[in-house]
Structures are given as C-alpha cells and as structure tokens.
Specification:
The complex is a heterotrimer of chains A (158), B (512) and C (189). With 158 residues, chain A is mainly α. Chain A is 53% helix and 0% strand. With 512 residues, chain B is mostly helical. Chain B contains 20 helices and two strands. Chain C is mainly alpha-helical. In chain C, 59% of the residues lie in helices and 8% in strands. A two-stranded antiparallel sheet of chain C has the order 1-2. In chain C, strands 3-4 form a two-stranded antiparallel ribbon. Chain C is elongated, with a radius of gyration of 22 Å. Classes of the chains: A mainly alpha (158), B mainly alpha (512), C mainly alpha (189). The interface between A and B is large, with 63 and 70 residues.
Chain lengths: 158, 512, 189
C-alpha cells in the first residue's frame, strides 16, 4: 500500500475542493475551469499512487531496476491527461455554442420541471381532458420544455 | 483464426467502421451501409463469443501479448458476451431506424459527417466496457462511450437542447473524474488495476479501506446508472435528444453502469449476504422513478422516469447478491435493454405522427395508426411485466431471488411488485391518453429545417421495421426464456464463484 | 493575392508575401504582424520536420505519434495565427485534404496496424522489429508499431486542423457575420 506525503495530500485536497466548487457553478466557463482543476487533482493523485519520486523507469540495457519509479501510474496519468484535454476542448466548443445560441453560457433551469411543480394537482386521472395553463399551438417536440408560458430564463430571474 | 482474436473484434471493428464512415463522409448511403454491416459483424462475433464462453469458459485475449496482470486483457465470459450480443442487436436496430431520421449538419442538405462515425465509436466504447478486464481500461471505455454520447446529445443543438446537453456533460464529467480518483486510490492501495488480480488483493486490505473503495465504486457507477438519488440528470437530458439517440442512451449507457456495478461488486467487493445499502437504494429508486413518471405530461420524460424506476429492479437483484439475484439482474438487463430502447423508438414514431410529445395534445391514435398502437402496446406491457412477456420472466427471476434472501429482501421484493403495478398504471395512462379518446389533428412542424420530421402521416419503412424487429426480439426473449435463463443462471453462478473468471485471466494461479 | 509584375501593388500591401502557401486566405492587412509572419515563415517547415523527427524516434526516445502530431498541429496553429483573420478561404482550403478525412485515415491506419499481427498468428497489437543496414544512414531498427504511430500522427494533425477550422476560422466568421448584422441593423435604424 502506497502512502503519500502530507503536503501532497493537502494539494490534492485543495485541487479537489476548488474543482468541485467550480463544477457547481452555473456558468459553463467556471465548470470548464472546475473540470480542468479537478482533472489536475485526479491526475496528481494517480501519479502519487505510484509512490515517491524515483529514477525514470527506462531500462538502459544494464538490467538495473533498483530505484526505478513505477511506470504504470505514469502511463495511466498520461492517458487521463489526454482524455481531460479532449473534454476541455469539447466544453470550450459547447460553451461557445451556448453563447452563440442564447447569448450567455449559463446552465438554465429545466422548464418542464418547473411546469410540473407548478401544477396544482397531479392530473393523474385517466382519459380526462387536462386544462392548459398556456396556449401552446405548434409545439416543437424537440423542445417541449420551451412550450411553457413565460417562465423567464434564469438570466432574467437572477 | 484463433479464439483469442474474437474479444478484440467488437472493439476494433466499429472503430474501423468509424474511420471508414468519416472518409466516406459525403455519401449518406455509404455511411449507412458501412455502419450496418460493421454492427452486423459485431453481432455475429458476439454470438460466437457467447457460444464459446458458454461451452468452454471465458474467452481471454491478451492485448499485445502481455499476460495479465501486467498487460491489458479482454475477457468475454457468459455475462459480458450475452450483454454484448443484446446491446449490439439494439444498436443495429437503432441505426436502421435512423436511416429515415433526417440527419444533417449545419448548412448542408445531405449527409452528416459526424453522426455515423460517432455512433460507431459509441458502440466500440460500449463493447470495450463489457469486455475489458482491468479497471483503467474500463475508465477509458467509459470515456470513449461518454465522449461519443456528448457529441450525439449536443449535435445540432438549439437553445433548449444545449441546456440538457450541459447538464448531461457536467454530471458525466464529474462522475468520470470520480472514477479516475477511484482508480488512483485502488492502485495506491493494491498496486494493480487488473480486475481478476484485484479480486484477491482487495480482500487483504483493512475493512475500512475496503468500504471506502466499495462506496466510491457505487457512487461512480451509480451516477452513470442513474440510481436515486443520483438520477436527477437523466430525465433532464435524455428526452430532448432525437429519438434514435435517446433510445440508444436509454438502452445502453445506463446498463453499462449496471454492468460495471455487477462486475465490480461480484468480483472485487463480494459481500456474500444481501447488502442493506443497495436494498434501500433499489427500493427508493423503484418508487421515486415510477412516481416521477406518473407526474409527467411529456411522453419522453415519462419514459425516462420509468427507466430510472427500472434501474432499481436491477439494483435489487444485485443487492440480493447470491447467484440467483445476480442471474435475475442479468436476465433483467437483457430484457430491459431491448424494451426501453423499443419504447423510445416508438415514442419517436408517435411524435412523428402527432407532432407533439405532450400527452395532453394527443388522442385517438389507435384508430388512425393501429400498427403504431400494437408496436407501443407490446413493449409497454413487457415493461410492466404482464405475463407472458419477457418482463414477467425477468421479474419472476428477481422475485424468486428476493424470496430466498431473507426478511429484508422479501420486503423489497414486495416493493418490486408494487413498482411493477405502478408501471402498469403509468403505461395504461399513456395508452388511454394517446391511443383512445377523440382523434386529434397532428400539430404542424414549426421548425421544418431541424432534424425532426413531425406531424406527418407518411409511414417510414426503416423506422417501423426497426421498431418491429426490436419488439420481435423482446418476444423472442420471452419465448426463449428457458434457455436464456439457463445461461443467466450459469452466468450468475460463475460471477458468485469468481473462480472461472480469475482462472481464465490469471491462469491456474488465480484459483484461491 | 499574388502580385503580378504589371499590377501596381498598393502601398499597404507591399510587404505581403507573394506565395500563398503560408497564408490562411486573403489576409486583412491591418491584423497581420510582419514579425510574426516572418517567424511563421521560417518556423513552419522547421517545426514540421521536427514533428516528423519526433514521430520516428518515438519508439526509443521521447516523442511518438501523439507528440509529433501535436507539434505538427502547432505549426498549423502558428500559420493560422500569422495569417490574420481570413476572409472566406480558411486554413482547411489551403490544405487539400479535408481534416475529417485525415482523422479517418489516421484512425483506419491505427486500427489496421492493430489487427495485422493477428493475420500472422500473433496477439493483436503486438509488434515486430526489422533491422536494416542502409548505406549512408547506417543501422536502422524499424519497429512495426511505427505504423500505429503514423496513424496517431495523422489523426492528431486532422483533429488540430478541424479545430482550427471550426473553433478558429468558424468563430471568426460568426463574429464577422454578427458584426455585419449589427451594422445592417444600425443602418436600417
């Protein structure tokens, strides 16, 4: 079982808490930063799982393996770094797309959720016509949530 | 051709297909032909793997010739081969369904350069998740699968879909990073990431550490499988995607989470007695999911909540954690992959016909589209578990396992029955509001340029054929319930015994 | 773009390069930097050669397909930045291969390389070494995993080019269109 130094444990803890804090924000840009920081934390932890710093794990033909670092966590971290990198790029693109479409990059509320919460009674009775709260002609099924009467976007509420 | 090549093909063939479809990006028909033939080939390979695994034990492939536990191994035992087969069949049907879905990129009228390649990459990720024999490759498999799913769910986004996409991506990223943390901690504690090797090493750890690792695993895969209270993202994000994408996600992605739980719980953290935590989670998931479904007015959201509810059924079998419970879960996963995907595909057809997903604005569809009514009725009743459907067979297996597990499991088994009845109520409610009553005129398509063609009475042969094929598969599961449950029983015995898997991966040294 | 001898070169264009291999399209002169352009001009081929070096030494030294591909991608990024914002023609237009095709080819090469050993009865993804003695170059060790690296190299270059196209030129185009729409709106008002 590998143990790590206190300083590194603290660094990992700080990275995780900062990362998760940012992940909980509404702005996708902060979420992106959160993912980056959290990814660093996870990769650092993965590195530390290999034990304390040691000689580079390169066999130079002498067959001398004493004091070599564990190469596996390094390989794992390398893979994880690449994956995090790809996700960062993707999130950037998504944030940009959101900015183009809605003018900001904040994650908004689910309108269908709100609408169900606002219904006074659960209209579970079968076959009954359900009265409408809003006039909804021409609902695009791809955006059923958008068909509500003006539950304003979160940006306006806040 | 040696058998050791077989487990590699379900991963590499779709990737090769993805490469080919990217290069053939200008021809939609070439893309479809490549995608369908690749998935058909993978289904054939999965069938051979299942027969091999059932007759001669797990098929192991050591990638690059490095033996376990040092190298990466791909293992196809009964469970993974069976799930691989059914997943590939469903993926194939969804791809056929998507032939008639208008899939275009921005500013283009013809083929999409992204849909088919990403679809096949997703399929490769799912295959890798089922077949991989080490924890880190499982992480990579999840990332391949999720990255592909991010693209599929945010392709051609409008302002509504981008919200659901953001929710989905953020939650998935959080769970992925949690998974990475788990891998790091597991490696730090044991010095290995090979699942078969972990089976012995984790048992030597202190109990507290074992509990922490086991909990991390449950939370990580619990988010992916949408177990209550980690389910909030699912009804929020799935319903807004196009029907084929939703069907694929609902059928496969959550089930891969269940598979990962099944594999790690049986192999690494076996408890040998019913797990109280999982029993509670199962009960809560079943009830919260189905009650959520009853409150919905949006057909796709309703189905998403039912999906959450039925995740609880699978967790229940896992919580019982004896051979019968595991076998019941395996059978339930097979049944549920098929039926949930079918329901979402049929929901897409209903939307196409009526122009809306709102139950309030539908009605009288039974007279106008009788074929659609049949296609909805069979999977709906199967989901509720009405005899003699495959849902009944799978639930019976779970109930039998629950009855044999002690008083705690017996109570939750009662909740299984209750949740099944409520599911029946939910689908009957949909039936009454969509198919009975006054026929309504379809609503017009208010965005003719997007990928959804709605409010049309034109029947689409590929869409109906794919849905009907999946209905036929679920009927076939009911007809072949005897041999199928024999396989899942043997798979359950294997998983609980743990020896076949470890011996196959590690050689004779794996025997305890 | 190319200044023909008889055409009078506008005074603000006299420093524009006459070959078009380097630019991303018709440059907007005000947004170009002479220094950066010159640097890009010298660096672009050098960096590409260096990326090939990284690709080839990858088996025994630091480097490999991923690193080499990224370095080559950086060369294209440099070219993109030096070219200023592009009107119409994008970086993808100068590179005759469409980026997705590059990605597909790279992935295809990598997967086929993984599968080829199976044809010789070896496990998937295993590699073999061939040693040559070539005059002038001396002793060469070629490992078959080089083919996998080449696949990765192509894939990464394709990805970077696609990123430059969608997130580079694409965003610039969107911004220009938005600005044009604003102008039109103001003019109408």
């Amino acid at each position: 079982m590998t143990t790590i130094s206190l300083a590194m444990a603290v660094v990992v803890a700080v990275l995780y808490s900062v990362g998760f804090y940012l992940l909980l924000q509404r702005s996708l840009m902060r979420v992106l930063l959160g993912v980056v920081v959290l990814g660093h934390g996870a990769n650092l932890l993965l590195q530390l799982a290999g034990g304390p710093p040691a000689r580079p794990p390169i066999l130079d033909g002498t067959g001398d393996t004493a004091g070599l670092a564990d190469p596996l966590p390094q390989a794992l971290a390398l893979t994880a770094v690449v994956i995090t990198f790809a996700m960062t790029t993707y999130l950037l693109a998504l944030g940009y797309r959101s900015w183009v479409l809605v003018g900001h990059d904040e994650v908004q509320d689910d309108l269908e959720d709100r609408r169900i919460a606002r219904r006074r009674t659960v209209k579970a009775s079968m076959g009954e016509e359900v009265e409408e709260t809003g006039d909804e002609v021409g609902v695009d099924p791809g955006s059923a949530a958008a068909s509500d009467d003006p539950v304003t976007s979160t940006a306006d509420v806040r | 051709m040696t058998t050791s090549l077989l487990p590699v093909l379900p991963v590499l063939l779709p990737l090769l297909g993805a490469a080919a479809t990217v290069v053939a990006g200008r021809s939609a028909w070439a893309q479809r032909a490549i995608g369908i033939s690749v998935l058909a080939a993978v289904a054939a390979v999965a069938t051979v793997l299942l027969v091999q695994a059932d007759r001669h034990g797990p098929v192991v492939s050591e990638v690059g010739g490095w033996p376990a536990p040092v190298g990466i191994v791909l293992v196809a035992d009964r469970l993974s081969a069976l799930l691989l087969l059914i997943s590939t069949v469903v993926t194939l049907a969804v791809l056929v369904y998507a032939i008639d879905q208008r899939i275009v990129d921005y500013g283009r009228r013809t083929a999409s350069t992204t849909f088919h390649p990403i679809f096949l990459v997703l399929s490769a990720g799912v295959s890798l998740a089922y077949l991989t024999g080490d924890l880190f490759s499982l992480f990579v498999a999840f990332e391949i699968m999720l990255a592909a799913s991010y693209v599929l769910i945010t392709r051609r986004t409008d302002a509504t879909r981008i919200r659901s996409g953001m929710t989905y991506v953020t939650i998935s990223l959080a769970s992925s990073l949690l998974f990475l943390t788990t891998v790091a901690l597991v490696y730090a504690a044991t010095g290995t990431v090979n699942l078969a090797d972990l089976a012995t090493r984790v048992a030597d750890l202190p109990t507290g550490l074992q509990t922490v690792l086991a909990l991390l695993v449950v939370v990580t895969f619990g988010i992916k499988a949408a177990i209550v209270p980690l389910h909030f993202w699912l009804p929020d994000s799935y319903p807004n995607a196009p029907a084929p994408v939703t069907a694929l996600f609902a059928g496969l992605l959550t089930k891969v989470g269940i598979y990962a739980l099944l594999r790690t719980r049986t192999l690494i953290f076996p408890e040998g007695h019913p797990s109280t935590l999982l029993l509670v989670l199962a009960a809560v998931t079943m009830i919260v999911g189905v009650l959520g479904a009853l409150a919905q007015n949006d057909l796709n959201r309703l189905l998403s909540f039912l999906l959450v509810s039925h995740i609880g059924f699978m967790i229940f079998g896992l919580a019982v954690s004896d051979a019968a419970g595991i076998a019941g879960t395996a059978l339930y996963v097979v049944h549920h992959i098929t039926v949930q995907a079918t329901l979402f595909l049929v929901s897409g057809l209903i939307t196409r016909r009526t122009g809306t997903v709102s139950l309030d604005k539908m009605g009288g569809l039974a007279k106008r589209a009788p074929l659609l009514a049949i296609l909805f009725a069979i999977p709906a009743l199967t989901l509720a578990g009405v005899p003699p459907t495959s849902g009944f067979v799978a639930k019976l297996a779970l109930l039998q396992a629950g009855a044999g597990g002690g008083s705690g499991t017996a109570i939750v088994a009662g909740i299984v029955v209750l949740a099944s009845l409520l599911t029946l109520y939910a689908v009957v409610r949909v039936w009454v509001r969509v198919f009975w009553g006054e026929p309504r005129e379809p609503l017009p398509d208010n965005d003719p340029d997007d990928e959804l063609v709605v409010g049309t009475a034109r029947t689409s042969t590929p869409m109906y054929a794919a849905s009907a094929a999946l209905v036929a598969v679920s009927v076939a599961i009911a007809v072949a319930a005897g041999p199928l449950s024999a396989i899942t029983t043997r798979a359950g015995d294997d998983l609980v015994a743990r020896t076949p898997y470890r011996t196959a991966v590690l050689g004779d040294g794996g025997a305890p | 773009m190319t200044a023909t001898p008889d055409a009078r070169v506008p005074w603000d264009r006299w420093d524009a390069p006459t070959e078009d291999w380097m630019l991303t399209g018709d440059p907007v002169v005000s947004e170009r930097t002479l220094l950066l352009e010159l640097a890009a001009r010298i660096l672009f081929p050098t960096v590409l050669v260096f990326s090939l070096y990284l690709l080839l030494v990858g088996h025994y030294g630091p480097g490999g397909g991923f690193a080499g591909g990224l370095v080559a991608g950086l060369a294209f990024v440099l070219r993109h930045i030096a070219g200023g914002r592009s009107e119409g023609a994008e970086i993808g237009a100068r590179v005759k291969v469409r980026p997705p095709v590059l990605v597909g080819l790279g992935l295809g090469v990598a997967v086929v390389t993984a599968l080829v050993p199976a044809a010789f009865g070896a496990p998937v993804l295993s590699s073999a070494k061939f040693a040559f003695d070539i005059p002038l170059l001396g002793h060469l060790d070629i490992v078959t995993s080089l083919a996998l690296d080449i696949g990765v190299y192509l894939l990464i270059v394709g990805v970077v080019l696609d990123l430059l196209r969608s997130l580079g030129s694409g965003i610039e185009r969107d911004a220009r269109e938005a600005a044009a729409a604003d102008d039109a709106g103001e003019a109408a008002a």
